[in-house]
Model the fold of this input.
Amino acid sequence: MKRALLILFLASLHACEVGQIRHPRPSTVPVVIIGSRSYTPAAPLRYAVIFNYPSSFKVTDDGPATIETIMQVPLNTPDIDWENYVTPLETAILPTRTSINIYRPRIVVYEDIDESGDFLPTSILHGVDRIVAIDSSVGLPAVAVIPYLDKVLKRMTLEESAAFYAASGNLYTPFIRVLAANGYLELLEATDDNIIRLDLSDSPIPAERFVCNRSAVYLYGNPLTPSNDLVINVDNTLDATAICGATIPSCITLNFSDTESPNLNIYDTQAYRRVVQCRMTENFEVINIQSAELNCVDCLCSYKTTAQSYFAKANEVPDWWPCGDPISYCDSNLPLYNIDASCE
Done:
């Protein structure tokens, strides 16, 4: 109740100050960085707050990042002309269904590869820093800034001003909290519950989201889809032609007893997936190894997959053969050289 009365008081106070020159204040926003078991930083982590222009960007704050700890990140506008250049401008809906223009600055976490303390992403010339987290576009609280704040507030009703002060944390500042939901942005009360969450990732998607500047980044494909880039290795006790036929052009005959074990390590991250499966029939034992690496170009991310299969005669496998123990057999109706997602 006290908070609601304070918000109404601030809104009415602004209404009484129309015509006076006021200077918007900077602000802060609570941010938490969520770690990932599949990600280990390769360099010190830092955060940056960024305003994007048509062909450049401006960093307004940059500092050391801590994982799983709430940080109060400073929010400042970059310069006196930022309203004319930031992109993309978006629309936020007020409680009265009136709309206002806003801009959402990016908040990123990056690996400071050169330990310079400056944000120099790989997307720019001579940039080396790797973006490993970025603010979400949909479904989570975000920070926005209102261009030409004083002009916008002068046009607001008392109810709209109250909504603004609730979203700004009761400050005369252009920075507000918003939520992207149902295809539009709406004002969100600036409470401790509406925190900005950044999820660390080893994938190239955060960097691609930064480059694409609020345009959608599409993830295409499945790392377990059978690969077209397939090599079949056949033990010399078997007939390779009978196994590969005319459909598998890359077919190699080896003496498995004199061959070193292939890499049987399994990885399961968004950036890199490596699956090892075993199959068995009356005549054959088979190891299938498929690797999938995520690559992003022009706001489209897809998996590049490669696969290798090893065919040995049943009951005549080499010492390094892993099937049965530690890798169990996959019961599948797919071709023997294909990974079966149902076994994962």
